[in-house]
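User: Run a structure prediction on this.
Assistant: Running it now.
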Amino acid sequence: MAKNADELVFLPLGGSGEIGMNLNLFGFGPEHDRKWIIVDLGVTFGDLATPGVEIIMPDTQFIEGHKDNLLGIVLTHAHEDHMGALARLWPRLECPVYATPFTMYLVKDRLSEVGLLDQVELHEMPLKSRFQLGPFDLEFVTLTHSIPEPNGLAIRTPAGLIMHTGDWKIDQNPQLGEPIDEGALARIREEGVLAMICDSTNCMSPGRAGSEGDVRKELIKLVGEYEGRGVAVASFASNVARLESVMMAAKENERSVCLVGRSMHRMVGAARSVGLLSKVPATIGEDEAQNMPKGHVLYLCTGSQGEGRAALSKIANGERRSVKFHKDDVVIFSSKVIPGNEKTIFRLQNTLADEGVEIVTEKDRAIHVSGHPYQDELKQMYEWIKPHISVPVHGERRHLITHAALAKKWGVKHSMHPHNGDMIKLSKKGAEIIDLVPNGRLHEDGNRIVSASDEGIRLRRKLAYAGHISVSLVYNAKGKIISGPEPRISGFPEGKNGVYLDELLDAVADEAEFAFRKISTKARQDEDTVEERIRSKVKKLVRDRTNKRAIVEVTAHRV
């Protein structure tokens, strides 16, 4: 092929090898002048390995270097792992944004919070709409998922058609919105699909995910079993069909719904703005709910994953003035345990149980179904689309590898399991990695966005695991100690009556003084040399005594 020939490439920068933080690039044209679109721009959440960091985003360094050829950001749906980084990273990209009405409502809300609403070129697109961005002819395809308006994208280019599924499942009774648009999928298949970029989340699970319709019936029945008792339901706020099911359960059992949690109010507002939730009564406020008999109220709360700042944890810890749980109340977790959240969820549930609150989870009753396809649904999608190439995304390595193998088993000629940063050329010959571009993670640290490799983040992570020791020392030009050595220690156990810590402080002070006296008179003229010699000796002492590689800082000042 000629050096400057047009090429169609797919480039994941987030979401391949992990669940969450999705960022996918599609490029078309010659290498020196390739046009790009971004599909989804999401976040994932910090954990104990990232102390002080709650929001993590994909590194956009590569596409920032090509933003003159960046035609737009297209959002498939409004989950945080697909659109949560938009307001944070848009200033680095500065391009138009395209989304359907429900997603756009939340995009505007987020942009308004950070003062960017008037700066971003926004295009609210009708469901099933088709539009052109340079060489890309894009069509929103209605699918089903656990949030309103989930869209696949049919991406037509001069080099072939790509079906990008986004997040999806097959639910013939989704409760809100339309079922999967099988007619559109059949039409796309007839055109011939070069490649399908497809959700892998549940590819290791046989069977089908289940229907929201069945969950609704079970919730109505379950709430009815607690007549006269206080009832709260925790669920993902973004699953508006589930929220409606909870509201229907309340209505059928003569309870009023009180929303608790900021994101619950935000999602309900977004849903009502596009005509959803019209079958259920208006909700009531916390003050009104507080003055009603508890058997007449149902609290619908955020915090099903045990998040410390979410509504349910605050109620459990007595931090919510107008909402209290009491003995014999019931909390229903209409959600799953997301891997990695087990400790926070079980801690929350144990706190509730300690107060005599009854806990009901999806392990006890059929009150949750996944929003992602199981194997039977995946197979059906491959039968609908019949792609030439399968490129699994939205999964950890084991998910992608399993999905690629299944695709081959189901008759797909070419399949691969990409890593973030793999630039993949898509053609009739198959899928070929032609480049590896910079990729990684960005951390929202307070009000700044920094690289995951930032020295401050690295040091804080080390501090969390190993503690910190500082030593200060003042000496005169003749080499005589005027003040110190004065050690300070953070992050080490104190021991009974602080004896352990006192002994360590004394040992550090003695070692620092001994190290200083071993330094020659000439070398003491250089403060940097003094600091490094003392630091080295103190670090070794601490490692020998505590088996920890603590951060050690020494400040020596010559007067």
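The two ends are 72 Å apart (CA to CA).
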